[in-house]
Write a structure and sequence with these properties.
This protein is an all-alpha fold. It has helices at about 1-25, 30-60.
Length: about 60
């Protein structure tokens, strides 16, 4: 159950990051956009890692 809550909160944070990236995209320079894009990619990787660990834990304990 806690894995589901963590996953939902991670997806909400990801959505927030993408929306902020799209808002700032119009006024920032290229390096700032690139930095923000790298943050989004890192957060996507962490999200998939959380899902994978949760999946593996469910398979072990269930």
């Amino acid at each position: 159950m806690s894995i589901l809550i963590i996953s939902i909160l991670t997806m909400i944070a990801l959505l927030f990051l993408v929306v902020q990236l799209l808002k700032v995209n119009q006024t920032s320079g290229f390096l700032k956009i690139l930095r923000d894009l790298m943050i989004v990619i890192l957060s996507l990787g962490l999200t998939f890692l959380v899902f994978y660990v949760g999946y593996r834990l469910m398979r072990v304990f269930l």
